C-alpha cells in the first residue's frame, strides 16, 4: 500500500521537541494505575461497607443516639469515598476524610458501645471497616503515612476491644487473632499499592526517555532535511541567478538575471515560512534555547559564556528554532569578522511571554547600509528568519563593536 509523503511529513512535524518532551510529558501509566486502584478499592470497600452496614442496622435502634451518630460519621464519608472512586474525581480528599473520620469513630467506640456487651466472640460492625480505612489511607496519603496507618489501625482496634472487655482473658484471645489478621492484610495491601505505583512510575520514566530520544532524532532529521533543501535551493536558484548574471550581455539578459536574483533571494528568505522546514511547533523551554546556544558556541569553536537572566518559560518551537538559527549566524559572523573578540551572549527570558537574546563583540564593526543586497548572512539568516516567526532583529554596530539583538514576544 503506497504511503503519502505529505502524511509522513505531517506526522513527523508533530513529534515534540526535546524541551517539550521534558516539561509537558504526561504520566499516562501512573494516572491509569491510580484509576485502576480507585476502582478496585471502590469494589472491595463497597462489599465490606455493605456487610458492616447490615450488621450495624441489625444491632442498634433509632433511640440509640450515640450509635446512630457513629453510623453517620463513618458511613457518610465512606459513601463519598466510593462515589469519588467511581467517578474518578476528588479521590484523595474523600479518602483522606474517611480515613481520619474512621480513626476518630474507632477511638470513641468504648464510649458508644453498651458496657454490658462483653461477649468476646461478637465482633462489632466497625471491625469490618478496619482494612477499608487502610486502603483509604493508601489512596490519600504518602507512603510513610500509609504504612503507619497499616500498622497503627489494627492496634487501635485491639486496644478499643480490650477496653470494651475490661482486658479479660477471652477478649485477649479473640482480639489477638483479629489484630494479627488485619495487620498482615493491611501491610500486604499497602505493599501491593506501593509496588504497582513504582512499576507505573518506572514505565512512565522509560517512556519519557524514549520519547525524548525520538524527539532528538526527529530534530536532527529535520535539520538534515533543511540542509538538503537549502543546498538544493542554492544550487537551483541562487547559483543559477549568479551564472545568468555573469553571462548576461544584453539589456534583456541583464533584466532576466536581475529577476532571477530577486526570486532566489525571496525564496531564500521564505525558507522558514514552510511548515516542512520548521519542524515541530510544540512549546520549547527557554532553558533549552540556552543549551542550544552553548552547543553552537562549541561547534563554532568560540570562547564565550551564555549568561542567563529572567524567568524560564515556554515559547513555540518554530520561534525557538528560528531564534537559535539566527543567533548561530550572528555568532558565526562575530567569529569570522571580529575574531570572536569580546564575544558575549545574554539570554533574557520573560516566562511564557517571550525571550530576548543579545550577541555582542568588541570587533571593528561595520556599516550595515553598505552590505550588498546579495549578502544573505544578515538579511536572510537573521532578519528574514526572525520576521518569518513574527520576531524582531536589530543590529547596532560601530568602531567599538557590534551588538545583535533577537527577540520574540507572544502576541
From TrEMBL:
Among InterPro entries, the record links this protein to:
HATPase_C_sf (IPR036890), Sensor_HK_TwoCompSys (IPR050482)
Q: Which UniProt keywords apply?
A: ATP-binding, Kinase, Membrane, Nucleotide-binding, Transferase, Transmembrane, Transmembrane helix, Two-component regulatory system
Q: Name one GO molecular function term.
A: ATP binding
Classify the source by domain of life: Bacteria
- Its transmembrane ranges are 36-60, 66-86, 93-113, 125-151, 171-196
Protein name per UniProt: ATP-binding protein
Amino acid at each position: 500500500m503506497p504511503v503519502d509523503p505529505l502524511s509522513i511529513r505531517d506526522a513527523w512535524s508533530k513529534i515534540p521537541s526535546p524541551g517539550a518532551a521534558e516539561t509537558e510529558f504526561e504520566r499516562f501509566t501512573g494516572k491509569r494505575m491510580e484509576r485502576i486502584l480507585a476502582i478496585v478499592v471502590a469494589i472491595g470497600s463497597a462489599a465490606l461497607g455493605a456487610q458492616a452496614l447490615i450488621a450495624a442496622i441489625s444491632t442498634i435502634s433509632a433511640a440509640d443516639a450515640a450509635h446512630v451518630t457513629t453510623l453517620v460519621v463513618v458511613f457518610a464519608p465512606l459513601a463519598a469515598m466510593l462515589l469519588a472512586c467511581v467517578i474518578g474525581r476528588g479521590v484523595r480528599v474523600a479518602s483522606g476524610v474517611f480515613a481520619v473520620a474512621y480513626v476518630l469513630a474507632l477511638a470513641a467506640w468504648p464510649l458508644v458501645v453498651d458496657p454490658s456487651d462483653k461477649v468476646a466472640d461478637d465482633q462489632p460492625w466497625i471491625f469490618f471497616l478496619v482494612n477499608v480505612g487502610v486502603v483509604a489511607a493508601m489512596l490519600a496519603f504518602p507512603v510513610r503515612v500509609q504504612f503507619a496507618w497499616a500498622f497503627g489501625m489494627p492496634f487501635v482496634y485491639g486496644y478499643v476491644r480490650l477496653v470494651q472487655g475490661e482486658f479479660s482473658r477471652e477478649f485477649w484471645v479473640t482480639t489477638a487473632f483479629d489484630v494479627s489478621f488485619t495487620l498482615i492484610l493491611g501491610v500486604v495491601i499497602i505493599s501491593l499499592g506501593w509496588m504497582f505505583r513504582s512499576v507505573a512510575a518506572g514505565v512512565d520514566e522509560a517512556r519519557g526517555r524514549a520519547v525524548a530520544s525520538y524527539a532528538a532524532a526527529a530534530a536532527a532529521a529535520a535539520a538534515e532535511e533543511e540542509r538538503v533543501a537549502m543546498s538544493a535551493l542554492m544550487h537551483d536558484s541562487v547559483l543559477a541567478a549568479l551564472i545568468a548574471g555573469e553571462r548576461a550581455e544584453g539589456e534583456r539578459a541583464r533584466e532576466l538575471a536581475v529577476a532571477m536574483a530577486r526570486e532566489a533571494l525571496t525564496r531564500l528568505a521564505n525558507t522558514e515560512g514552510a511548515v516542512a522546514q520548521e519542524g515541530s511547533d510544540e512549546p520549547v523551554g527557554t532553558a533549552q534555547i540556552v543549551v542550544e546556544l552553548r552547543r553552537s558556541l562549541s561547534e563554532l569553536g568560540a570562547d564565550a559564556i551564555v549568561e542567563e537572566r529572567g524567568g524560564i518559560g515556554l515559547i513555540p518551537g518554530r520561534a525557538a528554532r528560528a531564534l537559535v538559527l539566527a543567533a548561530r549566524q550572528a555568532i558565526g559572523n562575530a567569529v569570522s569578522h571580529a575574531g570572536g573578540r569580546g564575544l558575549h551572549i545574554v539570554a533574557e527570558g520573560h516566562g511564557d511571554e517571550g525571550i530576548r537574546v543579545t550577541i555582542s563583540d568588541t570587533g571593528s564593526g561595520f556599516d550595515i547600509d553598505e552590505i550588498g543586497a546579495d549578502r544573505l548572512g544578515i538579511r536572510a539568516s537573521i532578519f528574514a528568519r526572525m520576521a518569518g516567526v513574527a520576531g524582531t532583529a536589530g543590529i547596532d554596530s560601530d568602531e567599538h563593536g557590534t551588538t545583535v539583538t533577537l527577540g520574540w514576544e507572544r502576541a
